[in-house]
Give the backbone structure.
Amino acid sequence: MPPERGGGGEAAHFRALESLYAAAPINRLFDSALEIAEAGVARIRFMLDARYFHAGGAAHGTSYFKLLDDAAFYACNSLVTDRFLLTTQFNLLFTRPLGEGPVVAEGRWISGRRRVFVADARLIDDEGEEVARGTGTFMRSRIALASLPGYARP
C-alpha cells in the first residue's frame, strides 16, 4: 500500500525520515545509515567493531535490538507522513553471533495502517547470512513529525 500522501511527496518523506534517523542522539554511538527506497521497506547499514562486544567477544544484544527495531520502525513510519511512531513491543530471535564487520538490518512492514503497525526485520552479516530476526508492533504517537528538528523535508 502506498504511504499517506503529504506535502512534498513520498521521496521527500523518505529523505526527511533518513535525516531524522541521522539526527537522533543515539546514532552518535552507532555509526549507521538509514536508506528508505520504497514504502514499507527500510535498510540500515552498520559497521560492527569490538566497542559493541560483550565479554564473550561477540556483538552484545543491544546492537541486535537497536538495528532490528530501527529497521522495522522506519519501514512502518515510511507509511505515515504526519506522526512519529512508537515501539510498543518487539521480539528477537538470535541465530548466530556477530563479530566485526559490516551488517545490514532490513525491515519490512507487514500489516496495519490505522493505529497499530506490524513489521519484521532481519539482520544480515557480511557473508549474506541471517544472524537475527525480529518482529515488532508500532503505534502512532501524538508527536507530529514536522515538529521534530531532524525531520527536514528537502
Q: What stands out?
A: The CA atoms of residues 22 and 33 lie 7 Å apart.
